[in-house]
Amino acid sequence: MLDYSHDDWKSRADALSLRNQAFIDGKFVDAASGETFDCINPATGDVLAQVAACDVEDVDRAVLAARKSFDTGSWSRAAPGDRKAVLLKLADLIRENLEEMALLDSLDMGKLITDAVTVDAPGSAHFFQWYAEAIDKIYDEVAPTGPGDLALVKRVPLGVVGAVTPWNFPLDMATWKSAAALAAGNSVVLKPAEQSPLSALRLAELAAEAGLPDGVLNVVPGFGVTAGKALGLHMDVDTLAFTGSTAVGKIFMQYSGQSNLKSVWPETGGKSPNLIFADCENLDAAADMAAFGIFFNQGEVCSANSRLYIERSIKDEFVDRMVARAQGMQPGDPLDPASKMGAIVDENQTQGIMRHVEAGKKTANLATGGERVQVNGRGCFVQPTIFTDVDHDDPLARDEIFGPVLSIIPFDNEEDAVRMANDSVYGLAASVWTDNLSRAHRVSDALQAGTVSVNTVDALSAETPFGGIKQSGFGRDLSLHSLDKYTALKTTWIKYQA
Ligand code: NAD
Q: Structural domains in the chain?
């Protein structure tokens, strides 16, 4: 696959057969209303599929199917080793269908096929495998009571998990939620983002093929204000795992209060700072990773390093390095392996990015980029864009633009850098570049972020929790800690004759 040409990918894309119905109780079905919505390829503007537009009735059916499957115990009370076997099989099936899964995400939201096939799709298989392998190695507890008492503290699945996901990593976001929730024994109703539902639908089909019982994983494509809201307000959903914007994360907290007080796990926006000190010896590596940190996935990454704080003494030379890298990453056809950046997810998002860029041209210095462009005469593409001399209070440095737009801000000393980095409503991720070990620890300790990467950016693995603080939310995906969201601690106290 890595040696496929542009034409190879295009012909494989043309040959795909797309799933466009909801997946409820083990079957593909139309929305009860019969309504559909257009799923559009942002690189071309072509309609890829008309997808079932689920609403309250469909969500009700999916939650009922999930509840019934949970109550039968066919999955929820299966031995951990049996759940493991099914999820390992699913990981294998994702690998066997890697090309298709990668194509679905690339076509649906504009990401580079080279990234989808090397990062997103293999990542999904890896995360399913990781939770499969973990789940039969976790022990429950016996509390330290006295003789005559035996207190068992068990981790039990919650029941029906609602998962609502964004469009920037469609397959991986669906995976991060469902792999952990399913491994723990729950049944899941997943609502993927309306911009990119295709890979989640195929995932559900592969899960059924792997042996997941009917009703254990349901997918209800549709809009936020219909299907998403119905899931958030549902009286029979036990927990709601949400990844998306901060504004919508807050709405899900309200849904909970208006319904059954389900737990809600918001994993929301970010405006992550990248601090580069003059004592960093390898400024080339720092520039490579800083460019990756903002331009990977067209900057549509929650933890994108969109604020770059640079020590004033090296500012000019570092800006030159960044400009050179940005100019080498111009957008191209996502299916062309030679392209360095793909399409923005849709027209709406493109216009939002350009509004920030146009405003920024009046308040800061545009060092490179700054234009919307077309590829093959069409599509939603934005040049990699860098602003320098950005005022720390400018919207360029405050707002989550969620596109390939970097703001470079100079600092004079460590205290100054940390103060500005922390002066944000967000706290998802941060990066620090320094060869001074004490400074690396001191600054990492001081930065308000769920993950701090030192001499790299966006460090992430299945083994480490991912999530934020402040208005980046408080849910955690990945690692064993993610299981906390999907389980309850249950105490069983037994009296006996000692
Ligand atoms: P979004 O908040 O607009 O949508 C996310 C999901 O919520 C979608 O499925 C959408 O249909 C649904 N939704 C929207 N409005 C709703 C409503 N009123 N009621 C119920 N559901 C509703 O976010 P997006 O544009 O899809 O994704 C981009 C955002 O996601 C960015 O802010 C990004 O930082 C964030 N994100 C966070 C993480 C993380 O782990 N913290 C990871 C990826 C993306």
A: 6-268+473-490 (3.40.605.10), 273-462 (3.40.309.10)
